[in-house]
């Protein structure tokens, strides 16, 4: 069977839709599952670093004296 036969084109359609569906599910998982969790973790981690820095070196502002 050659790639130019009608059978070859009809066989590629279901796999094309499977690939498209798999890509859509991967996008939805990334967009609404993984990336929001990563974003909250990054912001929370940065807040934790600032908090620890201020515990060690004091709050920002003019030196008390």
The figure for the number of domains is 1
Q: List the total number of helices.
A: 1
Q: How does the helix and strand content classify structurally?
A: mainly alpha
Indicate the overall shape.
Answer: rod-shaped
Sequence stretches where pLDDT stays below 50 over 5 or more residues: none
Mean pLDDT: 86
Number of DSSP E strands: 0
Query: Can you summarize the main beta sheet?
Result: none
Describe, in plain words, how this protein is organized in 3D.
By secondary structure, this protein is mostly helical. It has one domain (8-56). It has one helix and no strands. The protein has one helix at residues 6-57. The longest helix is centred in the middle third of the chain and has 52 residues, at 6-57. It is rod-shaped, with a radius of gyration of 26 Å.
């Amino acid at each position: 069977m050659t790639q130019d036969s009608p059978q070859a084109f009809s066989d590629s359609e279901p796999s094309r839709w499977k690939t498209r569906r798999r890509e859509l599910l991967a996008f939805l998982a990334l967009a609404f599952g993984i990336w929001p969790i990563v974003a909250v973790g990054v912001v929370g981690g940065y807040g934790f670093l600032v908090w620890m820095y201020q515990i060690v070196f004091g709050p920002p502002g003019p030196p008390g004296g």
